Description:
single chain; mainly alpha; Leucine-rich Repeat Variant; 3 domains; 59% helix; elongated
Amino acid sequence: MTTADDPLPSLVRALRSQSQADRLRAAKDLGRLGWLAREAMPALVAALHDDDGKVRESAAHAIGLMGPDALPALIAMLTHEDKYVRRNAVWALGKLGPLAREARADLCAALKDADPRTASGAAQSLGCLGTDGADAVPALAEAMRGTNIVLCRLASKALSQIGSPALATLIAHLQHADPFVRGESALAIGWMGAAARTAVPFLARIVRGPEAALLSTPAPLSYTPTVIAPPDSATTTPPQMADGTTSSPDVNCRVFAAQALGRIGAAAAVAIPDLHDAISYGPAPVRTAAHQAVRQIQGE
């Protein structure tokens, strides 16, 4: 229903104007009205095929501001030929959160989009579904193993947001050949907090690292904060890289695993001996992270 002062009819007419400036202005104005402009949805959907890219993008953005009523249009937009339309679609679906559960399969397909930002946005949107995104776990796990580093990070974050249904997958990825994937999995597990307590033994194993096999004495039964320096013996020196440094991609992975144990908190107390070994014998970044983790676990 319209009234004399209703701006929608004139804005809809402007969307069909011969003037690109008028069409662009109308799309932006409809976006500012948000949900109040929902009756203009058909006109905005038609504008997604405008000859001008800026008009298409503005129309896509306006549709994304119209709330749950826009869900069917947003799903259709995921396969639009214009990447900027697709980017707006994944962004808007993420804002809908669990209300976008009907888009799960389409968002999973969008994880393989040729446009990296669309793919990464799809991962974020799946994470916003929370536990309703459980069906997306296999697709997100696959996305983690790809070559898009940003997508790997956002897919792992999404898995942490999905929670318990994704925990087994993240634990499995702690053993992946790529240390970046292992590290991102550790970070994601840490974001889950105490709910990820079953991952503690796997994280502890990563934290101890290769030096653990060189130790001549068993790990202490409790944390001793005064023992923080490595012994002088060359047999317990961390393996060196070709350039003589002790840094490697695996070091970052161990740091992330230690941080995850700290975020899990008291439920990770069983890992304190492993963290102690890391403090005693690990590379400097690992020592620092392990020390902080112990403090968090002990509630200091």
